[in-house]
Amino acid sequence: MSNTPFLPSTLTLVGSTQNPATTQNSDGSNSTLALGRQGDILVSEVRGKYGLMAHRGYVYWGSTTTAGIALPINTEVTGATNTFGLNNPTGSGVMAELIDFDFMIAGAGPATQNTLGLSVYQASVDAITAITPNPGPITAGGNPSNFGGPAAQCTCFSLATLANTVAVTGAIPLFTFAVSYLPTATYNTGPFHYDFNGKVIIPPGWGVTLTGSAAWASHAIPQLFWAEYKV
Fold it and tell me: Same domain for 41 and 102?
């Protein structure tokens, strides 16, 4: 790069060697760039991918009981049949970013080939009511990953009623179980894990509900992690 009056041809990056386990800067303060003992620049990888958000108290999880639940078919999600999902209410002031999803099985799956996924609904169109939060060891409907963090604005539900069949069913496929690879009461290879990698954001007034192309009996044990950012 040629010299300019505003930018020199050589820049010297200056920082200080810091211990990331003990450094705690106040919000709004000016601080030096954090360096490791080998002169390397310390970045957020010194923690987990969502460590900062979890530390601040804005990562949450919801799960069912270990007894397992039934799951509806993706074309039959009206009425009180939605047994697991995430609802971001209108006026929440947050965007919900799905982080990952885990699926465990306490018994046999459907007897036919099927796909498990998230159906998408919009509250203004599908009129969701009678939301029952999933139980939690910390807070029902959304446990903060930082156990002392604030309550979630979204609700991970164990029961929800939609006035209409959802406009988009099976919109986000997660897992497919072939006929020769069906879970049984004595054999399955779970848990099954899915990373969203920032690809699914739920704005206020929207939500997702877990469905399958075939109905599941009361053996499904899903778990969902999400982060909440201000709109």
Answer: no
Is 27 in the same domain as 121?
no
15-39, pLDDT tens digit by residue? 899 887 678 888 889 888 888 887 8
Q: Classify each residue of 20-30 as buried b or exposed e, where b means 16 or more C-beta atoms within 10 Å of its C-beta.
A: eeeeeeeeeee
Amino acid of residue 208: V
- Asked if 66 and 173 sit in the same domain, the reply is yes
Chain segment 185-200, per-residue pLDDT in tens? 677 767 899 999 999 9
Based on the domain organization, do 226 and 130 belong to the same domain?
yes
Of 46, 62, 81, the domain-final residue? 46
Both tokens of residue 163?
A: 């006035």
